[in-house]
Design a protein that fits this description.
By secondary structure, the protein is an alpha/beta fold. The protein contains four helices and four strands; from the N terminus they run E-E-H-E-H-E-H-H. A four-stranded mixed sheet has the order 1-2-3-4. It comes from Streptomyces lateritius.
Length: 128
């Protein structure tokens, strides 16, 4: 039996969602519901995932969708306290820096210091 919980805490400048359990296709609807109903426009969303022991591609896809949504609304996503397999998944897919970096991106998706966050410098797109 998988005990999956999603806890939401609202703060003036950010929302914190803490997740515990296995984040997969069967448990994802609970996280989706929390992120759909919370008004996030312009605020930071911190996803605290220290209690997540497993994440599949549906969980990763939702994190990437959520990041795009927040950037479009002037907010930002910060995934924190990844452990074990979920951290390995983000490293394997080269999304770890993209989702865990506390820096704020420019509206066009570029990192303020240049380049696209989450993409290693040697793989950055060239300006023409």
């Amino acid at each position: 039996m998988n005990d999956f919980t999603v806890t939401v805490r609202q703060h003036p400048q950010r929302t914190v969602i803490s997740v515990t359990g296995e984040l997969d296709l069967h448990t994802l609807p609970a996280l989706e519901e929390a992120t759909y109903v919370i008004p996030l426009g312009g605020k930071a969303l911190h996803l605290e995932l220290s209690g997540v022991s497993f994440m599949d591609s549906s969980g990763l896809n939702h994190l990437l969708w959520l990041r795009r949504r927040l950037l479009a609304e002037g907010g930002r996503l910060l995934v924190t306290n990844l452990q074990g397999q979920p951290a390995s998944l983000l490293h394997l897919t080269e999304t770890y820096e993209l989702l865990t970096s506390p820096s704020v991106s420019e509206p066009d998706g570029r990192h303020p210091e240049g380049g696209v966050p989450g993409i290693p410098r040697h793989k950055q797109p060239c300006e023409r």
